Amino acid sequence: MNSKIIIISIITPIYNSANFLASLIDTIKAQTHEYWECILVDDGSTDSSFQLAKAYAKEDSRIKVFQQVNKGPMAARALGFSKSTGQYIQFLDADDTLHPTKIEQCLAAINQTPEGVYTGFHFVESTTNTKFIEPWRRVQLQENPFLDLILNWEKDLIIPIHSFLFRRNIIENFFQNENPFQTHEDWDMHLNFASNNYRFTFINEPLAFYHIYPESNSRRNLTISKKDTLNVLAKYYSLTPTYRKPIRKRYYDYIAIFCAQKLKGQLFDWKILFSNKMPYIVRLIGILTSPYHIFKFVLTRKK
């Protein structure tokens, strides 16, 4: 093989994804950069995903399939990474897609920064296949990425993981530590990279497509999702002492949101407020002051 050929490892967890595999393979094969390997990791599916994936692998030697008991998407990505050989890593969930020139454009820009590239994206409504954006959302990180991710993630900032093309070394460093989260694993990865001062070039074009379905993995267990939200903040409260004040602020904001949702009849287990991994005194203050934070949150939303 020509030593100048750049191999991209496209790593995809699949969990009961049989209905999405055809479009997944299509979007990968449509890439204008043809030197790729696709690592499919079946995460304990109970449908025909694994069998279909193996059938695709028989048709194209660039597709490789592995299987594990159900451990969640980040564990599947970690296994896929351990089996990959590419110089660059493209994560792609089974129900999402890429613009045909996504990888090619990212490779053209990647020498501008040491760690990687990320791009704009569009939502895609699954039933009509309509692409759209939410005007209040943004993708590009501000001057202080870590602070931006702490204070604004899922408020006005959202960056799907498949918007990125990563250099291999930073993914290798990330997977040296076990990821304990079943949800919000993308947020944790973004915060990890920002806390290490990794920098990424931004391409202001919608080259990644995030598909919206009636049910998604992120909505499978709202209790786990809310607990993981608080525990991600607890993790970086411990790891980044200089950012404890903004992390506490976001922690109290989330408590206010969860309490307000409970008052509106939405799913919320009160035990989460006591069982998350924030220091005891921070949890106690958050609980005792929750009426104030709810009031402040409601006022902020009305502005």
Report on this model:
Helix content is 42%, strand content 19%. The chain has helices spanning 21-29, 49-59, 73-82, 102-109, 145-152, 168-174, 185-195, 222-239, 244-263, 272-275, 280-288, 290-302, and strands at residues 8-14, 36-43, 63-68, 88-91, 97-98, 116-125, 130-132, 164-167, 200-212. It is globular, with a radius of gyration of 20 Å. The termini are far apart.
Summary tags:
19% strand, 9 strands, nine-stranded mixed β-sheet, alpha/beta, 303 residues, 42% helix, single chain
Question: Quick gist of this model?
Answer:
This protein is of the alpha/beta class. It has helices at 21-29, 49-59, 73-82, 102-109, 145-152, 168-174, 185-195, 222-239, 244-263, 272-275, 280-288, 290-302; strands at 8-14, 36-43, 63-68, 88-91, 97-98, 116-125, 130-132, 164-167, 200-212.
**Unreliable stretches covering 5 or more consecutive residues:** none
Principal-axis shape: globular
Distance from first to last alpha carbon = 59 Å
Helix and strand pattern: EHEHEHEEHEEHEHHEHHHHH
Number of helices: 12
Mean pLDDT: 88
Largest sheet report: 9 strands, mixed
- Which bin fits the share of residues in helices? 40-55%
Count of β-strands: 9
Radius of gyration over all CA atoms, rounded: 20 Å
Structural category:
alpha/beta
Beta content comes to: 15-25%
Write the layout of secondary structure elements.
Elements: E1 8-14, H1 21-29, E2 36-43, H2 49-59, E3 63-68, H3 73-82, E4 88-91, E5 97-98, H4 102-109, E6 116-125, E7 130-132, H5 145-152, E8 164-167, H6 168-174, H7 185-195, E9 200-212, H8 222-239, H9 244-263, H10 272-275, H11 280-288, H12 290-302
